[in-house]
Write a structure and sequence with these properties.
single chain, alpha+beta, Transferase(Phosphotransferase), domain 1, Recoverin, domain 1, two-stranded antiparallel ribbon, 17 helices, 15 strands, 35% helix, disordered C terminus, membrane, EC 2.7.11.1
Length: 515
């Protein structure tokens, strides 16, 4: 949806053996010498033969076979989020009063047959996993002449990392982490049982059902998931940079890649840092392929041997040796009633996680500055999207509608924040490097008040209006550690893998319940 500012750069490309093809182009990729070609032809939609003529989109010419009585059964409420192909709303079932989430996908946006296949696959996946305690529950799929409606369970308990960060330092234990990891492993094991690979396991794709302390964790996003035949492999590169498995980068992956991603998440939950880090996507990939995680740096010496053993067995680079999801569920540290410690984790864990979140905030402010430099032609399409959401035409969207992109936390999202949340920085950079450099400089100067060529902590505090220590925001952007940000460092900040690359899901609404 273009509003998730965290270390989750999307990658997708190529095709798979035993799965369907994706309409999304690859955004990030490592070296690709001697890669295996795909062996699967593109599957054609039975209801929409061939490519769109440009007159009637494929989606409009397709009968999905879904129920046709959505309007009589549900009343649509507030907006939750939006993507390239549609919007997600809260809705109420008229007969029962139950609140649900409804993903409304525009058939006019499904231009090619593959877009139709993507929607059908998403529904098929939700149907296959229906009833699992840790998967957002699928209610039904509907359609009319203009839209496809996917009705799902509404999750209102917030994101995984937000819940952990809300805990007081003294109340976050290994056992808390183990409970979360166990639920993720249950999702992976259930997927694999159905011949399905999730392919994008990360904290942002999990929400809590409610705000209750004992609320279950739910997997909500299957936008990159795909079915695979026994013994077959995927040959494409998909996922999120920090969580991608080595075999994915080698273009020969299967269900084992989900377990690797959960290993990365567990590492983060236990120490607050990523096991593989670099300032560029290529650098991250090299770290994943060549290096081992650090288990010596604080707080690892205080973490139990059982927890370390568990993480190490999930982060084995050879997928043939790595634990399966089912095997991992039997590990003493993670199994129900297991030996995960209830002693509070080192205070540095939450401190590290808070730094991680704050760095994403800095990226938001930088993107906001870039957004303010765009010209009218570049803003035209985004204005249409903004006005469609700005129902009362006030020039601002309420925080309830667009919570995550309110970078100045004033309760409203103005147009500049909206543009910042939907910017494709890499595309802008590649399209016109001279214009990109000029815009970077203009955005930089919005921070650099005294025009001395550096953004100081004082200038950063003045521009952002944030209270408290500004150093955590400065830390990762300040490459040479001189206590300030140069223009070169500012440019690199906008290019680093901490920024979402805004690649939409097959249905067009990524992480639909996050706003």
């Amino acid at each position: 949806m273009g509003a998730c500012f965290s270390a989750n750069a999307k990658i997708r490309g190529g095709t798979s053996s035993g799965g369907t093809r994706s309409s999304r182009k690859q955004q990030l990729q490592p070296e690709q010498k001697n890669k295996e070609p795909t062996t699967q032809p593109q599957q054609k939609d039975r209801g929409c033969k061939g490519r769109s003529s440009g007159l009637v989109p494929c989606g409009r010419r397709t009968d999905f076979g879904y129920a046709k009585d959505f309007d009589s059964r549900y009343s649509v409420g507030k907006l939750l989020g939006h993507g390239q192909f549609g919007y997600t709303f809260v809705a109420t079932e008229n007969a029962t009063g139950e609140r649900v989430a409804v993903k409304r996908i525009d058939k006019n946006k499904m231009v090619l047959p593959i877009a139709v296949e993507d929607v059908k696959r998403e529904v098929k996946i939700l149907q296959a996993l229906k009833g699992h305690e840790n998967v957002v529950n699928f209610h039904n799929a509907f359609e009319d002449d203009s839209y496809v409606y996917i009705v799902m369970e509404l999750c209102e308990g917030g994101e995984l990392l937000d819940r952990i960060l809300a805990k007081k330092d003294s109340h976050y234990t290994e056992k808390d982490a183990a409970i979360v990891v166990r639920q993720m492993l249950k999702v992976a094991a259930e997927c694999h049982l159905h011949g399905l690979v999730h392919r994008d396991m990360k904290p942002e794709n999990f929400l809590f059902k409610s705000t209750k302390e004992d609320s279950s964790l739910k997997a909500t996003d299957f936008g990159l998931s795909d079915f695979i035949k026994p013994g077959k492999k995927f040959y494409d590169i998909v996922g999120s940079a920090y969580y991608v498995a080595p075999e994915v980068l080698k273009r020969k992956s299967g269900p084992e890649s989900d377990v690797w991603s959960i290993g990365v998440i567990t590492y983060i939950l236990l120490c607050g840092r990523r096991p593989f880090w670099d300032r560029t996507e290529d650098g991250i990939f090299k770290e994943v392929l060549r290096n081992k995680p650090d288990f010596r740096r604080k707080p690892w010496p205080t973490i139990s041997n059982s927890a370390k053993d568990f993480v190490k067995k999930l982060l084995v680079k050879d997928p043939r040796v790595r634990l399966t999801a089912a095997q991992a569920l039997s590990h003493p540290w993670v199994r129900e009633g297991g030996n995960a410690s209830e002693i509070p984790l080192d205070i540095s864990v939450l401190a590290n996680m808070r730094k991680f979140v704050k760095y994403s905030r800095l990226k938001q402010f930088a993107l906001r500055a870039i957004a303010s430099t765009l010209d009218e032609d570049e803003l035209a399409n985004l204005k249409d999207q903004f006005q469609a959401i700005d129902i009362d035409k006030s020039g601002a969207i309420s925080l309830d509608e667009m919570r995550q992109i309110d970078s100045n936390t004033d309760g409203l999202v103005d147009f500049t924040e909206f543009v910042a949340a939907t910017l494709h920085v890499h595309q802008m950079e590649e399209h016109d490097s001279e214009k990109w450099r000029s815009r970077c400089k203009a955005a930089f100067e919005k921070f650099d008040v005294d025009r001395d060529g550096y953004i100081t902590p004082e200038e950063l505090r003045m521009h952002t209006g944030l209270k408290g220590s500004i150093e955590p925001l400065l830390e990762e952007a300040d490459i040479d550690k001189d206590g300030k940000i140069s223009l070169s460092e500012f440019r690199k900040l906008l290019r680093t893998a901490s920024m979402s690359s805004n690649v939409p899901s097959p249905s067009g609404v990524r992480n639909p319940q996050k706003f």
